[in-house]
Amino acid sequence: MGGGLKRIAILGVPIDNLSMDETIEALDKLIETDGFHQIATANIDFLMKAIGDDELMDILQRCDLVLPDGMPLVWASRIMGTPLKERVTGADLLPRLAELSQRKGRRLFLLGATEERSRDAAAWIMRNYPGAQIAGRFSPPFGSIDDMDHVGILRMIEESDADILLVAFGNPKQEKWLAMHRSRLHVPVCIGVGASLDFLSGTHTRAPEWMQKSGLEWMHRFYKEPGRLGSRYTRNALGILRHLSLQMLAVSAQPRTSALSRISVFQENQALVITLVGRFTGEMVEEFDQALEQLEDLNSPMILDLNLTTSIGADAMGFLVDLSSKMRDRNQDIWLVGMRPSLRRLFRTAFLQERLFRLAPKVADALRRIDSKAPAAEPRTTPRPFLKEEVGR
To answer: ∠ CA(315), CA(318), CA(320), 5° rounding?
Structure first.
């Protein structure tokens, strides 16, 4: 189900573990597929806003890719034992997309920023990547989403036949606008890029490369715009201390048992029951994903028995966020049962427990509640192995 992409979850938001080169390759492949694909470049500010905004959190959890646009996310991933490969910023992504456009004829549409900055950004692309394809650009008047001419903008984008839509409205406006029109946008790759067009236009300058690599770019931006960014950075710093540190502590405090890890999968009448024994991370996440891919039907509730689960990694939480989104698309629930206090604390500090999953003390309790909602079914029999009794190492 994971499609080969590995994710971790930080404060409820799934973050894809991709390098810049892998990101470009993944986006190019998405262009070749049908449908709408939303991509976000998330930093700490995104996560802080999502904690207090259920709509934004749901959008980020359903994005096809969420890229780590911020060194604090990379540092946190290392502390939690599941290191992200690198920071992938919107400002670094745009020149690479311009190069992709030049190399493969991918058509870009620039939406947002002021007319002057949009024009200058397009000129920068054409000057540095001659042969790049600018399918169109438009700068709507500043205002709320409700005040926008949605019909006219959508018509303009559709007529451009763009492959990649770059939306520079700022977060959360750009993420909510894209999600609002996911059924009407016929562009395969849609990316919220924030202030990245401002950087291309030369309106804002990037920090020196050594500051970017050392995670100090925020200091450069604060020096340039203290009035606008001061309150944001203060809020984010407090958020790191209040929220992110608690998740990192909860992950790090889990027991590091060396006991054999294994997965048992059973079909139990109205639900799929999966027992996770030992440490749920690393290879065990891959085995879980492979087990689900072998199933022909996932249109039934899923019960995860965590009674014998000793620890859960940030990669497993990212997998569960992705799985929960897919199950919700099928109008099905994931139940977590038998959670020990350390796991409850982990899910609570990661903002996952109440948003995505239903809880029950035992498998029998979850089955009883599922059966009470289900249409009449045949009497339940003794559980039988559905895939294989044990998958492990």
So the answer is: 110
- Cα separation, 174 vs 166, in Å, equals 10
- Helix (H) or strand (E) segment spanning residue 391: strand 391-392
Evaluate whether 4 touches 80 at the Cβ level (below 8 Å).
no
Report how far apart, in Å, the C-alpha atoms of 210 and of each of 85, 137, 277 are: 18, 33, 44
Location of structure tokens 């190069």: 99
pLDDT, one tens digit per residue, over 328-358 is: 888 899 999 999 999 999 999 999 876 789 9
pTM: 0.85
- Tally of CB atoms within 10 A around 102: 17
Q: Provide CB contacts within 8 A for 25, sequence distance 6+.
A: none
Structure token pair of residue 169: 């409205």
Cα–Cα distance list, 116 to 120, 124, 127, 155, 198 (Å): 6, 12, 16, 22, 10
160, 135 Cβ separation under 8 angstroms = yes
- For 212-230, give the secondary structure using H, E and C: HHCCCHHHHHHHHCHHHHH
Question: Tell me, what DSSP letter sits at residue 244?
Answer: I
